Amino acid sequence: MPERKWSVSARRSGFRTSKKPAATPLEAALAMLARRPYSVAEMRRALVRKFKDDEEGVQQAVARLRELGYLDDRKFAAHHAASLAQNRGLGRLRIRRQLKAKLVDYKAIEPALQEAFSQTNEQEILEQVLEKKIRTLRLPITQSKLHSLCQSLMRRGFRAGDIMKAVRARPELKPVADAVDLTETEATTEES
User: Fold this and answer.
1) DSSP 16
2) Per-residue pLDDT reduced to its tens digit, 172-191
3) Nearest-angstrom CA–CA distance, 89 and 126
4) For the chain, give me the number of helices (H) and strands (E)?
5) Which member of 30, 36, 65, 192 lies 3.0 to 4.6 Å from 70 by CB, making a disulfide possible if both were Cys?
């Protein structure tokens, strides 16, 4: 067994001390923003949860961060939407749901989606995701496998009509795709 160089671990010696809790909502917000970006409402919710008794301090911290430009729903939505489209291969519907879950102002969502999909083509993203999914399918492709494939693409936020066009354009999927009627699938998508 090799000899240990250090007799005491870094944690015990004080090199890695525990973090001090933030004294003010502004300090806490700056520490949170150093880790990842937040929407305005998401930051407000986190600060209210952390500083229940200091609601005025929370409001002042959020106002100061907005004044400094650290909290901006338009910039946050545009960056997050572009990232989800380019890096995770998600469609417009799923990105809209993600932005709503991040409590982004509803007025900032549509312009962010327009900007994200002006940089990347949603149809190309669909084709890339479809290509990747087809590689994992075991042959022969049955109607149930095709249905499962289409459902997974719909969960990623692509529209059923676009999915069927892309599936029918693939020669290996065309015979099974022509036999499948996705009208019930489209109906369940429109309801949700």
Assistant:
1) T
2) 777 777 766 555 445 444 44
3) 8
4) 12, 0
5) 65
| Contact of 55 with 48, CB cutoff 8 Å | yes
* Bond into 2 cis (ω within 30): no
pLDDT digits (tens, 9 = 90+) for 146-157: 888 889 999 999
Tell me which residue has tokens 């067994």.
Answer: 1
Q: Higher pLDDT residue, 86 or 20? A: 86
- Distance from C-alpha of 56 to C-alpha of 5, rounded to nearest angstrom: 51
- Say how many C-beta atoms besides its own lie within 10 A of residue 32's C-beta: 17
The SS3 call for residue 181 is: coil
Helix (H) or strand (E) holding 109: helix 106-119
Lowest mean pLDDT among 64-73, 166-175, 179-188: 179-188
Angle between helices 143-155 and 183-191 in degrees, nearest 10:
20
Asked if residues 65 and 71 have their Cβ atoms less than 8 Å apart, the reply is yes
The answer to which of 3-7, 128-132, 155-159 has the lowest mean pLDDT is 3-7
Q: Would you list the DSSP string of 52-84?
A: TT-HHHHHHHHHHHHHHTS--HHHHHHHHHHHH
Cβ distance 38 to 46 under 8 Å?
yes
Q: Output the six-digit token pair for 145.
A: 């496998």
Contact between 125 and 83 (Cβ < 8 Å): no
- Distance in angstroms (rounded) separating the CA atoms of residues 32 and 160: 38
